[in-house]
Amino acid sequence: MSSGIVILLVPCHDPQGSFVSPSLVFSSLTGREVLTPFPGLGTAAAPTQGGAHLKQCDLLKLSRRQKQLCRREPGLAETLRDAVHLGLLECQFQFRHERWNCSLEGRTGLLKRGFKETAFLYAVSSAALTHALARACSAGRMERCTCDDSPGLESRQAWQWGVCGDNLKYSTKFLSNFLGPKRGSKDLRARTDAHNTHVGIKAVKSGLRTTCKCHGVSGSCAVRTCWKQLSPFRETGQALKLRYDSAVKVSSTTNEALGRLELWVPARPGSPTKGLAPRPGDLVYMEDSPSFCRRSKYSPGTVGRVCSREASCSSLCCGRGYDTQSRLVAFSCHCQVQWCCFVECQQCVQEELVYTCKH
Description:
The chain has about 350 residues and is an alpha+beta fold. About 35% of the residues lie in helices and about 20% in strands. The longest helix is centred in the middle third of the chain and has 23 residues, at about 115-140.
């Protein structure tokens, strides 16, 4: 069975040669890590130099080979931490109204299982790393990569004109090398994790679009420059959440011709059709998830969670009901523009009802 490497996406092979799938183990975060708010890559910043960069690589829990790659890539350690932060925030946003809200508590136990939630973690972590690497290249934070290969446009011109494209080509190539070569495995869990990792990378690729900028006198479009740009990561997160909602349960079968294990979606009982292989864009899981209603080794449960009476309390509180509390909230009101250059407001107070799930 594969296991998650601590801190972030670090699939590799253990000394016995078995595939260790990537996972973004948020439970390793303590809140003391230096995490650059992402996306804070809008302006070019000089890569970390010298001993500081090497020290950052040593602090990350990577395989020996990955640590060597990190030490050779100034700027990579910061980008890896950006990816952790990006994936964590997006996961928590997408599941903010769900019973499992991507909390840090219980993450280690969750990653040892084959739930739908585990599948999402693998996908969003690989997507975050792919996105962060591509953006770091275009922002000048990586020493060995720059803008994407826009036809007829050099990196210096691209930065000068503000049209530096996100280098997804370099990102995916480097990521393939960083995560290690793919090998066939007889472990269903390893195959499942590798599949979900690829779904995350594919989701980022699907969001790549061409953006163009006109140059010319008085706004004319005599010259048009185009470059590649990734969609906001929020769109990638939404796409992965939809895949989570329609995830398929898989088992395994042996491909006699290739001599390796393959993922398989069994046919439903009574269905005339045979089972099929999952599609490349499907998130896949092996076992049904727990309810996440009560505290367990997988989550803190939903006791005390704030909910919406109209939208989520019924599901989130798992039939236990909810408590209603009122609180006074101050806000600016009756604002008026004063001559010449400021706005004057009054302070108003209103009562607000808060609903929380009962014990």
